[in-house]
Specification:
Length: 115
């Protein structure tokens, strides 16, 4: 930790610019792509960007389409959607939700046990 502050150093609570980001998208109508938004663990909507393609693949998988945007362009694209939070390089994500299996009722109303 540096004991001396320099004028060009950001304040500790100010995020440093993220630079160019790999931004997850999804197909839109026609040839366009649409910004993919996520939710934080507390439920707030957030735009997400990754600092490198391998980080995106590690979190979202190789099949996730993405585009390259600057931090300011990503913020500008998310702002009209009411999203002002930006998450860079999230590492934790939940696995996809599997469809629920239907229980097989028996004549007595108790689900049958697997043999």
């Amino acid at each position: 930790m540096c004991l001396f502050r320099h004028p060009e150093d950001p304040e500790p609570d100010e995020p440093a610019p993220a630079g160019c980001l790999c931004v997850p998208v999804r197909p839109g109508g026609g040839a366009e792509t649409v910004l993919r938004l996520f939710r934080t663990p507390l439920g707030a909507r957030t735009a997400v960007g990754f600092s490198a393609p391998d980080r995106l693949v590690a979190t979202l998988g190789a099949g996730q389409p993405w585009i390259r945007l600057s931090e300011s362009a990503l913020r500008a694209a998310a702002a009209p959607l009411g999203v002002d939070l930006l998450t860079v390089d999230p590492t934790l994500s939940a696995p996809p939700v599997a469809p629920a299996r239907a229980k097989t009722p028996t004549a007595a109303g108790v689900p049958a046990r697997a043999a």
